[in-house]
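Objective 1b of the project was to move from sequence-level analysis to a structural picture of ligand recognition. The entry below was assembled by the postdoctoral researcher (A.K.) and checked by the PI before modelling. It contains the amino acid sequence of the target and the SMILES of the bound compound, zinc ion.
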Amino acid sequence: MPELPEVETVKRGLEEFIINETIRKVYLSELKLRFPWPKNFISKVVGKKIVSIKRRAKYIIISLNQDYSIIAHLGMSGSYKVLKKNVTQDYIRLKHDHLVIELDNFILAYNDPRRFGYIDLTNEEPEKHKFLSLLGPEPLSNSFNENDLAGSLLNKNKSIKNTLLDQSIVSGLGNIYVCEALFRSKINPKKNCSKLITSKGKPRQKLILLVNKINEVIKEAIDVGGSTLRDFSSTDGKMGYFQTSFNVYDREGEKCLLDDCGGVIKRVVQSGRSTFFCSNCQK
Ligand SMILES: [Zn+2]
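Corresponding predicted holo structure:
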């Protein structure tokens, strides 16, 4: 499932091609994604020009002229592809292509086998849209810091793993990067988040470290993603899924990669989702 770095990579990839292009034609599949298609989507977007593309948490926001914005989430398996338009031959849709947008010079196709992705269209300020309005601060931004995070943990009584997956506490993180950041901070994912703050709601050292490690792991992943961009506009340029090496994620039963640890990576299930961690060095 794409998390912040993958979505950022998709956004940067799209940005190269679609800005200042006008939407000429739209195909929507008969199947709905996670939610039904926005009403009159096609007639509202055809003829409008793409003026900017942004990312917020795991959402891509494509802004059109006349104040419309497309807000899109990749769900579990969504991906975009950009192809140079072939003037002699129409684009041939692939299985699971649910949205195809013909621009002046490019074809933008959204493919999603599992259809957990979703797309909305709004003419209000995107930040006020129901998908975005309750999102917590972005990693790598000033608003994501140990003092504010400590404040939002006050009176919370749940594991730090589940706390970090809560998009209103910090946005954009998913299972993979939460596991990795907790490993780098040597924090046990089952630890109650209240143990990371003082009784007055100030951050303890481990929480300060955690904020740094979240930023570090997200930045590294964005950098890795950037290096995958060059293939983007090729016919098989499926974006947003790049293999990077993880320290704990999906490594159940393998040795901890910390030299002096000697532990073995375990998998536990928290709120229905797998958590990978080393019980030896993550306390
Ligand atoms: Zn270890």
